[in-house]
Write a structure and sequence with these properties.
Elements: E1 2-7, H1 10-19, E2 32-36, E3 46-47, H2 55-64, E4 67-72, H3 76-79, H4 82-88, E5 93-94, H5 102-105, H6 107-117, E6 124-127, H7 130-136, E7 144-148, E8 157-160, H8 163-174, E9 185-188, E10 194-202, E11 207-215, E12 218-220, E13 224-227, E14 232-235, H9 242-262, E15 269-278, E16 281-288, H10 295-302, H11 307-315, E17 331-339, E18 363-366, E19 369-372, E20 375-378, E21 382-390, H12 393-404, E22 412-413, H13 420-434
Parallel strand pairs: 1-2, 1-4, 2-3, 4-5
Antiparallel strand pairs: 6-9, 7-8, 7-9, 10-11, 10-15, 11-14, 12-13, 14-17, 15-16, 17-21, 17-22, 18-21, 19-20
The structure holds adenosine monophosphate and glycine.
Length: 435
């Protein structure tokens, strides 16, 4: 069959790389299309110019090119209802409906769902005016967690240490800092613990665990500096031990899927749960309605199964016919190489020479790259995702950084400590064993 992949970042390069190996694309005439794609994705797919916000154009392309499955990478087209438009046109799509994508599209929607379904999460108040929000601060203790309700490219969360800072941040949010996304604000109780991400596939009825990961959101080493889309990740997150994973499935994922189905808006696609592992057990921080970026890169590196078959089974409501997802037992770790200036204004156009980076089995996924007169250059904030496998996080990090060091790209930087928490735990376990 022909498959259309929407998106053009590192997540989509990883998806394209795995999809290209699928039995669904084994026929001589089977084609993987990607829109808009990037120079890395072009190794696996035929790139096409399509605007995902133009649903009619996407449907016309699928009809004209015999596309049997559309895989939507980013959240914006899903929150915008592209999944519904495709389904109405009879085209199988991996990704939720507009109503179910509200799990990512509205933080207040998710908090209300958690309350209805008894899902553990931070206490909260929704506010639709600055005055209400300022009054609601009275019910919280510092630090104050303030969130723009809508999609804000991962930037809509402010953690304010003092009441004065919180008041100033709320004024900016209601003043239009995040545009429409900040017309409503959610104020939350601050949770403490370690964060981890949990992924599950669902077709609205069956739920299948799809692995875990830990991201590094701050730009600087030691988790300092401003928040980013993610500077590196590894999978699995060993802190999500089997007992905790069971609790996440039973207390968070299953009731979410069940409640949405019972309410007539079943969720189909990947559920990406951001979790806080608190002393009272795992609590939901937020949901995303797509794979994480760069978490997807490490999940794809470990996935042993046919990605195309899994995504099609989800799209066709027959996930129940698949027994489980098989992942390599090794750890995968990815280091994000970003352009100087990121997460502010990134420097564009810097030359990139990948050298021998993939020589020892590492994989370099392209995020913000472009070809200029045949030269690979940086064209975005996060530019490359250098990904490798190892028996431990320590070994996977050594392999990934070995590959990073092969890359000649003076305008890019990376954090040198991806995996630090787990590397410290592994060192402690080794010295425990040695003594
Ligand atoms: P979100 O975009 O909702 O994932 O939030 C971004 C980051 O803010 C999370 O990864 C956490 O580090 C932090 N955060 C969000 N909500 C809370 C909370 N209720 N308590 C503590 N930290 C939070
Ligand atoms: N890396 C975090 C995200 O994709 O939302």
């Amino acid at each position: 069959m022909n498959i259309l992949l929407l998106g053009g970042g590192g997540r989509e390069h990883a998806l394209a790389w795995k999809l290209a190996k699928s039995r669904l694309l084994a026929g001589r005439d089977d084609t993987l299309y990607a829109a808009p794609g990037n120079p890395g994705i072009a190794d696996h797919a035929q790139l096409v110019a399509l605007d995902a916000s133009d649903h009619g154009a996407v449907i016309a392309f699928c009809d004209g090119h015999g596309v049997g499955l559309v895989v939507v990478g980013p959240e914006a087209p899903l929150v915008d209802g592209l999944g519904d438009s495709l389904r109405e046109a009879g085209i199988a799509v991996f990704g939720p409906s507009k109503a179910a994508a509200q799990l990512e599209g509205s933080k207040g929607f998710t908090k209300d769902l958690c309350q209805r379904a008894g899902i553990p999460t931070a206490g909260y108040v929704r506010a639709t005016s600055l005055n209400n929000a300022l009054a609601a601060l009275e019910n919280f203790n510092p630090p104050y967690v303030l969130k723009a309700d809508g999609l804000a490219a991962g930037k809509g969360v402010v953690i304010a240490e003092t009441r004065t800072d919180a008041e100033a941040a709320l004024a900016e949010m209601f003043g239009g800092q995040f545009g429409e996304a900040g017309a409503e604000v959610v104020i939350e109780e601050f949770m403490t613990g370690e964060e981890a991400s949990f992924f599950a596939l669902t077709d609205g009825a069956s739920v299948m665990t799809f692995g875990s990961a830990q991201d590094h959101k701050r730009v600087g080493e030691g988790d300092t500096g401003p928040n980013t889309g993610g500077m590196g990740a590894y999978s699995p997150a060993r802190i999500l031990d089997p007992i905790t994973r069971g609790q996440v499935l039973e207390r968070i994922i299953a009731p979410t899927v069940r409640t949405l189905a019972d309410e007539g808006t079943p969720y189909s696609g990947v559920l990406f749960a951001g979790l806080m592992l608190t002393e009272h057990g795992p609590k939901l921080i937020e949901y995303n309605c797509r794979f994480g970026d760069p978490e997807c890169q490490v999940l794809m590196m470990r996935l042993e199964d046919d990605l195309g078959e899994l995504l099609l089974a989800c799209a066709e409501n027959r996930l129940g016919t698949i027994q489980r997802v098989h992942m390599r037992s090794e750890t995968a770790l990815t280091v994000v190489m970003a352009a100087e200036g990121y997460p502010g204004t990134p420097q564009k156009g810097g030359a990139i020479d990948l050298g021998e980076a993939e020589e020892d089995g590492a994989k370099v996924f392209h995020a913000g790259t472009a070809l200029k007169d045949g030269q690979l250059v940086a064209s975005g904030g996060r530019v490359l995702n250098v990904t490798a496998l190892g028996e431990t996080v320590t070994e996977a990090a050594a392999a990934a950084y070995g590959a990073v060091d092969e890359i000649e790209a003076p305008s890019l930087f990376c954090r040198r400590d991806i995996g630090w928490r787990e590397i410290a735990r592994e060192a402690a376990a080794r010295s425990g064993k040695a003594s």
